[in-house]
């Protein structure tokens, strides 16, 4: 279906171009592979949107997700008789499509100061539309989906491709805090409205937040135990509420996850979903609409290991790691250049691992984080309350002009990754004797590419150096190009090194930084 959608979009583009529209870049189609995007495209002003879209176009990604709160219902429509203002949504869709992004994800957050049951300045307790405004909510959803569906009726001027992925609420947590029964009523309204506008739309429920629960269990009955025994700060929606949503597959087209733990969490989440949906007798595509790098800590202060308000340890971090992590995060908030540079390289490596695992697990969309650092969360006052995620930006930009000031390793690593994934047909894990060795075979029309790294099986910090494992990879040919993922500040170009094969095998030294292997 994706190919048909893109083809239809190209026809629309030809029509608009013939009418004298501004020349636009060719679209990047993910084909049958995973859609890789970033979050959250900032919508503060038109120059910022345009500048960041142009910069990220150079990575080759086909996907992108926007900052959600800027276009939630109450921001787009100020009252029951007020018009729906599409300005910021149009900036997002128009500017990113203009430079070739074919698969945008949009989030429709139902929060409204005038229509929701209770929405406060600082925290909402129930975003459900009040009964008298349920029809208004449906009309808003229908209007947004209709504007970007590409059918030629009430479309945004210059629309190039339909926007297919639409999530209703951006996270099933305190961000969408109403009782699950009321959220399901909202989802039901939105699903019907979205499909009235665009029958081929792919509606996702608000994404399940499972982190920091470790879902790596030996037996499905242990899922309940894992939830019961984990320290969880945000208890708005637990396992029972997620199961209540999964009980209603008629209300969503894709299952939506947030991957806020390490890359291996994806495997455990997919296994859990297979168990849950298998019991219910259905299968649906899965997307990961939001991610974070392996952050080690969150939901509290991480720069100290004593006192109150301490961070939750996020797997693979354990309580025994708390003081060592506190020393590391103290250096981070003090802007220690060497430690920050190491962290940016760690984030780049982590996100490549995350995409490869997601592709191997059959995930259809993954939005990586973040387009830029979380500025306030890098301050001393915040005490590294978001862990490493605060320093997970791809770019440093001028927020008024959109001018790019610096490109971090994550930016270059994504571009490098997209080059190796271009046109791939499948991703499969290669069994290895060493359980720490992660080796994946990427099948492409012109041959194969391998990507490999070492799982540290725990916390990895700068003082640990680069723990390594040696593996022998059977390959055809006389030699192979070994190309490390770009992780160094100031480095923008891959540096492949040719290595000979001995007896049909390539000896590889694996560290946390993935390497691409291209047989020759």
Primary descriptors:
30% helix; 520 residues; disordered N terminus; single chain
Question: What would your notes on this structure say?
Answer:
This protein is an alpha/beta fold. It has a domain at 1-32 and 66-206. The chain is built from 12 helices and 23 strands. Helix 6 links the parallel strand 6 and strand 7 (202-205). It is globular and about 75 Å long. The two termini are 35 Å apart. The model is unreliable at 1-21 (pLDDT under 50).
Q: Give the proportion of residues in helices.
A: 25-40%
Characterize the biggest β-sheet: 6 strands, antiparallel
Termini, distance in Å? 35 Å
Strand order in space, largest sheet: 16-17-18-23-20-21
> Rough shape?
globular
| Low-pLDDT residue intervals, each spanning 5 or more residues | 1-21
Summarize the structure.
The chain has twelve helices and 23 strands. It is an alpha/beta fold. The protein has a domain of 173 residues.
Map the helices and strands.
Blueprint: H1 2-18, E1 35-39, H2 46-57, E2 63-65, H3 73-76, H4 87-98, E3 103-108, E4 116-119, E5 124-129, H5 134-147, E6 165-168, H6 180-197, E7 202-205, E8 208-209, H7 222-229, H8 239-246, E9 255-259, H9 265-280, E10 286-291, E11 297-298, E12 312-313, H10 322-333, H11 337-360, E13 365-369, E14 395-397, E15 404-407, H12 409-421, E16 426-429, E17 437-444, E18 447-454, E19 469-474, E20 479-484, E21 497-500, E22 505-510, E23 515-519
Parallel strand pairs: 1-13, 2-3, 3-6, 6-7, 8-9, 9-10, 10-13
Antiparallel strand pairs: 4-5, 11-12, 14-15, 16-17, 17-18, 18-23, 19-22, 20-21, 20-23
């Amino acid at each position: 279906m994706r190919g048909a959608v893109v083809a239809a979009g190209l026809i629309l583009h030809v029509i608009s171009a013939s009418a004298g529209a501004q020349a636009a870049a060719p679209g990047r189609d993910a084909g049958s592979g995973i859609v890789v995007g970033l979050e959250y495209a900032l919508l503060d002003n038109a120059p910022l949107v345009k500048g960041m879209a142009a910069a990220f176009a150079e990575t080759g990604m086909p996907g992108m997700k926007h900052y959600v709160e800027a276009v939630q219902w109450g921001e787009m429509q100020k009252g029951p008789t007020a018009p729906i203002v599409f300005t910021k949504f149009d900036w997002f869709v128009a500017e990113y499509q203009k430079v070739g992004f074919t698969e945008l994800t949009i989030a429709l957050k139902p929060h409204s100061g005038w229509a929701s049951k209770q929405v406060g300045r600082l925290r909402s307790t129930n975003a459900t539309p009040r009964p008298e405004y349920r029809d208004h909510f449906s009309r808003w959803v229908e209007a947004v989906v209709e504007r970007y569906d590409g059918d030629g009726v009430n479309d945004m001027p210059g629309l190039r491709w339909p926007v297919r992925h639409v999530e209703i609420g951006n996270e099933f947590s305190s961000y969408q805090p109403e009782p699950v029964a009321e959220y399901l009523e909202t989802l039901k309204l939105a699903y019907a409205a979205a499909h009235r506008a665009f029958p081929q739309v792919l509606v996702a429920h608000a994404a399940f937040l499972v982190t920091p629960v470790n879902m790596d269990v030996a037996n499905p009955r242990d899922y309940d135990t894992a939830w019961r025994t984990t320290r969880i700060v945000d208890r708005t929606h637990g396992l029972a509420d997620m199961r209540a949503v999964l009980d209603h597959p008629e209300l969503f087209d894709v299952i939506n996850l947030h991957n806020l733990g390490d890359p291996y969490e994806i495997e455990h989440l997919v296994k859990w979903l297979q168990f849950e949906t298998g019991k219910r007798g259905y299968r649906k595509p899965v997307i990961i609409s939001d991610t974070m790098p392996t952050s080690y800590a969150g939901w509290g202060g991480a720069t100290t290991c004593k006192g109150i308000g301490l961070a939750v340890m996020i797997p693979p971090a354990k309580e025994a790691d708390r003081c060592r992590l506190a020393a590391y995060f103290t250096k981070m908030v003090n802007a220690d250049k060497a430690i920050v540079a190491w962290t940016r390289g760690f984030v780049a490596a982590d996100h490549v691992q995350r995409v490869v695992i997601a592709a191997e697990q059959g995930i259809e969309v993954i939005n990586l984080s973040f387009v830029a650092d979380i500025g306030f969360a890098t301050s001393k006052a915040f005490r590294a309350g978001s862990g490493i995620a605060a320093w997970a930006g791809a770019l440093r930009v001028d927020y008024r002009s959109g001018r790019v000031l610096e490109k971090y390793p994550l930016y270059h690593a994504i571009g490098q990754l997209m080059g190796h994934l271009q046109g791939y047909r499948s991703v499969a894990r290669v069994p290895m004797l060493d359980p720490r060795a992660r080796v994946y075979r990427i099948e492409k029309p012109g041959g194969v590419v391998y990507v490999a790294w070492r799982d540290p099986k725990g916390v990895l910090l700068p003082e640990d150096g680069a723990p390594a494992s040696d593996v022998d990879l059977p390959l055809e040919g006389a030699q192979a190009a070994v190309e490390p993922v770009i992780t160094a500040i100031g480095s923008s170009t891959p540096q492949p090194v040719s290595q000979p094969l001995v007896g049909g095998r390539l000896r590889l030294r694996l560290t946390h930084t993935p390497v691409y292997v291209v047989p020759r």
